[in-house]
Amino acid sequence: MNISKNLTQEKLLEILIDSYKKGQEIENIEMNDFIEDIKEKVILVINAKKD
Asked: Quick count: other Cβ atoms within 10 Å of Cβ 9?
């Protein structure tokens, strides 16, 4: 599976920025929750079907 077709550098940067913002908004976020959020977003992008 070639994940680069769906997970572009731009999309990964978007995911990381969104996660960073979430981490800044929540005063006390658990690292596991933070990593799970990133993982879920990456998996969604990888599994997304391109039209």
From this structure: 8
Token pair in block for residue 34: 């933070």
Q: Is 50 helix (H, G, I), strand (E, B) or coil?
A: coil
Q: Note whether 21 and 44 are within 8 A (CB).
A: no
- What does the pLDDT look like over 1-46, one tens digit per residue? 556 678 888 998 999 999 888 888 877 778 888 889 899 999 998 8
Element (H, E) at 12: helix 9-25
CA distance 50 to 37: 22
The structure's pTM equals: 0.71
